[in-house]
């Protein structure tokens, strides 16, 4: 099996097609990249910027370059000696524009008689034989006058079309009438009654939907790849890429959404082996692991996509001494805002997960109730069963189990639920054996439901409420785990090296809540909690939402993502627009004061006023604080990058993050990348006689670290992972390891280091052999090397014999 040494993620879209990607393959080679890693390239919803809303599984998206563009990209990648990893989406398809998705369109037209009806996870009985489509602005009776019948035949709609504003639907065979064409509301209503779909108020999606979705996204319909014929149909084009040498590996999006992720990966492995003529394919699973959770050992995968590594790296660079002071600040903010004090992270996420279970996941939970054995539905009221299931889901400690493995998670959730809700003890006790019985469909569906409740309750709600240190509220991270000491970090890396040496590691993705260098700067606040508390009070005096914890979240984002471009009026204007979008999303995701369904206009006005003030009258004061903490943030950023690239696993560089990556949550993290500027900077760094670039706002120093580390990985096999010792007064500020004659040395807690007097006599203990720092070209004798000398130019060093 061909294995990557590193990857570089490229977001392929209409504004950056496969042909555009072709133009950067030589740059990726020069950077030191091993494989190019493409976002989904199957045809997606028109205008999609991410590609996870696939509408046609049979072809490469023409808007992204099509099959010809892929062929040209592959030729260029091979010429640059790059492997190719492609992101695939087996769990769901995009249905926001039904006509763009031929399978979904045919199901709307023909219902259960459609050849594609089995491809989608639809509860036809609950819908009385019809597919429920929640797109109306109000109840049907109030909207009927806006719905029209167009009898004009079309190739994909021989019986005409039903129109509602921009929405278009096919008419079922033989149901079009002249009366409906006349526009009579009664006749249109009768026509609608004859269709294989039912138009519903959009808010009905929460409770009355009858098809499985991706999380709570109604425009992404669940696909039943557990059926062999559906697997074959959805993977034929993907397997062609492998068979024809167009792809070397696959990244599987959201396997937890599938009925049986392990079974899916088994089937995929067999199919890849056949397509590769006996060659086993490289496969990664986008699996989110909770703190302390292990990846299922029987999965046929090289490992996760790396959020677990991200959490470890962020935490070893976070000062544990700041935790109590930040907790105290959070308590004051909550008290000043008349908010209840937090009792702990796990109590918070129980409540936010329960909120999700009681709102946007009600459709899924009601489907679980319908799937329970009749004896239970006869013994208990439907509402009681729904309540008990929601409570178990809210208490579930991980994204999902994989029965029969993971029964302990179910038992733990049930036990916690009984403690929290003792009045439900009888029903919970009787539910557990059913939910553990893999001969029952409901047991499998329950496992598919724990993930959405976890993701929406934690990542998309609690992360925006638990605001003491925003760098810790990241996908795959448990912000209840504040920091990680150096010994704990080494233990985690040694375990990855021993168990999952070809798993991906990451620092930024299209899904991270903050870019890696935004987090690196925010992490500095843990070293200066009293200073931060004073600055936050000052900033809140300038502008505040009135909600202290949200103010903390927003001001952290403002200073953490503050870009060098904000030094110009135009750059400041662009940043202001980015912050407005972030603030709106963060506040609505938190759903404490305002939300996606109902907005609190007064709160949102205050929220936007904070952004306007920060980037207007207060800009100089904010910039002064950014300047104060940026050097330590840059140090953290360089350390994180070196630890990731040189650590165990396959490091991924998210597009553009070889310079400072100071994005916020999507879609901010999918902004266009200036590859011409990166190519120019790399050439200047590589030029003969070039001096090592300064650590400054340009990010050139990060490009140096990234390129040298990637090239070293490509040129030297990293066969071991062995911690290196440091000794002296500042030894706790060193993270260093040996990869087999290649040594990485990084600084942690840089602000505290300087405040305590610097490195002083601290040494790092190397083999007694001369070494060269590939970042600076400087030589050292080996043995006990003074860290002050070793890190005189950069806060990191990369040494070879």
UniProtKB/TrEMBL annotation:
GO terms for biological process: alpha-glucan catabolic process; trehalose biosynthetic process. Residues 14-435 form the Glycosyl hydrolase family 13 catalytic domain. It comes from the Bacteria. Transmembrane segments: none annotated. It holds the Pfam family Alpha-amylase. One of its GO terms (molecular function) is (1,4)-alpha-D-glucan 1-alpha-D-glucosylmutase activity. NCBIfam families: trehalose_TreY (TIGR02401). This is Malto-oligosyltrehalose synthase. It comes from Microbacterium testaceum (Aureobacterium testaceum). The gene is treY.
